[in-house]
Design goal:
Distance between the termini: 64 Å
Structural class: alpha/beta
Strand content: 15-25%
Mean pLDDT: 90
Number of domains: 1
Low-confidence stretches: 1-8
Largest sheet: 10 strands, parallel
CATH topology: TIM Barrel
Bound molecules: iron/sulfur cluster
Length: 344
């Protein structure tokens, strides 16, 4: 009798918890929202893994072509010597990582790289420069680079640090499609990893980029020692922006010797997949991108991330200054999974 009562109680608890899970899932799949509470996002993270992945794949198929992955190539057009102190970055002048400095590339050399990326199958070409914010004379050269990339029929993206509203407009006028500016983590954790600028400055640049009519690429890094609440808060902040970013890169920390995060604890692989899935649920139309750290992921982990709604990768030999799976490995993985490159 007691056992039967306990079993009935357990069934009731399970039913109540399923109803609660279904409530939060229903909220996730029913509309594009910009009013997520931290509690709701944490509930999504806490769902049983299979339920979360299934819901993310369901939402994914409502908004995206199944089995198609957007392919971007990222080129470092100005490397190292950055005055900022981002604790994860080998390009900061504050850390001894052995990375050399390279001045801003010539326009013709960038054009050549973009043409090679297009020939290899990339549809978007991203140019990254290690700046706090770009100088006027450098921006003029970068404007030329953007025009060359667009002339090749590629989508263009740039990541150049903080922008004023005028600089954002200058890039828009040059034909730039996307601007990348990551929030990295939660506002609460941000001061632990970057001291040379504030979270609000990041948000201000994102607002300037949007106001100029550029598309936004904005995400974060998992594995810097942040708490589960910080991960939830990062995704909540992104989802509660006035417009969801069109691209959301989810990076897994690359631990570079010489940086303060060289010995950061390993991220649990399932927690990483969960982050991709919750990003997909909160920002259904965004391209969720597997970015830095992909070279150390197994094919099976990447496949789980795709199942969780990731549908964009950086493609090519180098990801700024850290490694990226080579083109041959990516092609083999796509073949094995039946994935195809997404046409723009
Ligand atoms: S992440 Fe960007 S801003 Fe930060 S140190 Fe590296 S290059 Fe500079």
């Amino acid at each position: 009798m007691v056992v039967r009562g306990a079993a009935a109680g357990a069934r009731k608890d399970t039913a109540m918890s399923m109803a609660r899970d279904e409530g939060v899932l229903e909220a996730a799949v029913s509309a594009l929202r910009h009013d997520w509470t931290l509690d709701e996002v944490r509930q999504l993270f806490a769902l049983p893994f299979m339920d979360l992945i299934l819901a993310a794949q369901r939402v994914h198929r409502l908004h995206h072509v199944p089995n198609a992955v957007q392919m971007s190539t990222l080129l470092s057009i100005k490397t190292g010597g950055c005055p900022e102190d981002c604790a994860y970055c080998p390009q900061s002048v504050h850390y001894q990582t052995g990375l050399g400095r390279e001045a801003l590339m010539e326009v013709a050399a960038v054009r050549e790289c973009a043409a090679r990326a297009r020939a290899a199958g990339a549809t978007r070409f991203c140019m990254g420069a290690a700046y706090r914010s770009p100088k006027a004379r450098d921006l003029e050269v970068i404007v030329e680079m953007i025009r060359e990339v667009r002339a090749l029929g590629l989508e263009s993206c740039a990541t150049l640090g903080m922008l004023s509203p005028e600089q954002a407009l200058q890039l828009k006028d040059a034909g730039l499609d996307y601007y990348n500016h990551n929030l990295d983590s939660s506002a609460e954790f941000y001061g632990e990893i970057v001291k040379s600028r504030t979270y609000q400055q990041r948000l201000d640049t994102l607002a300037a980029v949007r106001a100029a009519g550029l598309k936004v690429c904005c995400g974060g890094i998992i594995g810097m020692g942040e708490s589960p609440a910080d991960r939830a808060q990062l995704l909540r902040t992104l989802a509660n922006l006035p417009e969801h970013p069109e691209s959301v890169p989810i990076n897994r920390l690359v631990k570079v010797p010489g940086t303060p995060l060289a010995d950061a604890p390993e991220v649990d692989a399932f927690d990483f997949v969960r982050t991709c899935a919750v990003a997909r649920l909160l920002m259904p139309r965004a391209h969720v991108r597997l970015s830095a750290g992909r070279s150390s992921m197994s094919d099976e982990l990447q496949a789980l991330c795709f199942l969780a709604g990731a549908n964009s990768i950086f493609y090519g030999d180098k990801l700024l200054t850290t490694g990226n799976p080579d083109v041959a490995r990516d092609r083999a993985l796509f073949e094995r999974l039946g994935l195809t490159p997404l046409k723009p």
